[in-house]
Amino acid sequence: MARRNVLLIVVDQWRADFIPELMRRKGKDPFLRTPNLDRLCREGVTFENHVTTAVPCGPARASLLTGLYLMNHRAVQNTVPLDARHFNLGKALRELGYDPALIGYTTTAPDPRTTSPNDPRFLVLGDLMDGFRSVGAFEPNMDGYFGWIEQQGFKLPPRREEIWLPEGEDAVPGATERPSRLPKEYSDSSFFTERALTYLKGRNGKPFFLHLGYYRPHPPFVAPAPYHAMYRPEDMPAPVRAKHWDDEAAQHPLLKFYIDTIAKGSFFEGAEGHGHTLSEAELRQMRATYCGLITEIDDCLGRVFAFLDETGQWDDTLVIFTSDHGEQLGDHHLLGKIGFYDESFRIPLVVKAPDIAGTRGQAESAFTESVDVMPTIIDWLGGEPPRACDGRSVLPLVRGERPANWRTELHYEYDFRDVHYSAAQTSAELHMDEASLCVVQDADYKYVHFAALPPLFFDLKADPDEFNNLAEDPAYSDLVRRFAQKMLSWRMIHADKTLTHYRSTPHGLERRDPQSGAAVRLRTVT
């Protein structure tokens, strides 16, 4: 097979309902301007029911790049190490003859058994996953980015993060219509784009794999000019939430913890107070800024796409666009990526496979998950996804062929054990191994199982915004039981299967094909 190119675009905190193509398909006004993403949707397949299988960033990216569910890779929270034994996309690409380049970050803490406790990587939220070659690092501590700004001649303040404060010394931190102090030429989105173009030009037409990561539309929610004023708050969709935050908090103790503790300062540089105090006007302004950051990324992608066009590489490149997770944006009186709501877990997935033309511009409604990205890339490059992989290649779906045994529900997990910036586990008086939940949902129902807290069950047809918990309603007891059984079966089927297809026999080691059961003799006893 001829060598091929792969461009994997991973943005941060971009939720699925802020994709214009999906807005159009749902009959909504596509108020966002994303001409380059629109082009990708026209030339590829847009997945309508795609989720990350874990949040926040570290667990989400571990699942994306290993193809493993949270219950198997066990990098369950930001700062929790990823076991070195796990195979990942970078290592798989090396087996296929690629030197996988990465721009951005993976938020991966190293296995402490492979290094010293004094390793500086344990001082930060996460570092780079083994197997990839960094050609534009953002972590640790964004030093590469801030150094680049200074090298461009822009003088940083003593506290470097203040570049994301609104323009003007008297600007009050918080939801604002003002631009950041940093010109767009020096934004992090511009930095990643410059690194991408530098790498691609350096390849000089040779085959490549590039993980192109972008930090946005992740907070702080302040956009550079002109993106800060590109969207009007009054044009933004209103937040989906109960009239008062107390009503939401009463639904479940985990929600109460987050509503009580989420700080504005995590989303607006220098702001004080709690997120649930944001008014609807402030939330609409925050969403307008969020959209501005999205359009800035789209403009940056346009530069990368244009280079691939000019050099004749676009038609030879598999392009996958996705995000690590979503963002609550004030829905349910929450900010960030937490819990079990769709706003945190539903994310974009667009796949343009240059050798598959029949389905271009179409949407696919099959249930897909972030663990499917790794096996899709390996499949397209002619490799074989590892036996342990929990995901499946979506290339049959891209071809317009839905396998008969494709999944019938979406699955995702969340671990809320204490980390240095959040103590949900302690608040709930749980052991760390009890602080977790998992979700199974289809088009009609959603079941949320907690290891040691009350469950939740929603009738999505009657209550699409998930305000009414029916877990204890006798009329739904059979459905609750059925979905709990679905979840148990899912966990049993996807328990670690790395070696379960091997057998010792009187004739030596054999390996059985997981699909057909046919045996392959690996060693003959003489």
From TrEMBL:
Region (Disordered): 505-526
GO molecular function annotation: metal ion binding; sulfuric ester hydrolase activity
Keyword RNA-binding: no
InterPro entries recorded: Alkaline_phosphatase_core_sf, HdlasePehA, Sulfatase_N
Keywords associated with the record: Hydrolase, Metal-binding
Domain Sulfatase N-terminal: 4-382
The keyword Metal-binding belongs to this UniProt entry's keyword annotation: yes
Pfam families given in the database record: Sulfatase
GO CC list: cytoplasm
NCBIfam families: HdlasePehA (NF045661)
Protein name from the UniProt record: Alkaline phosphatase family protein
Organism: Phreatobacter stygius
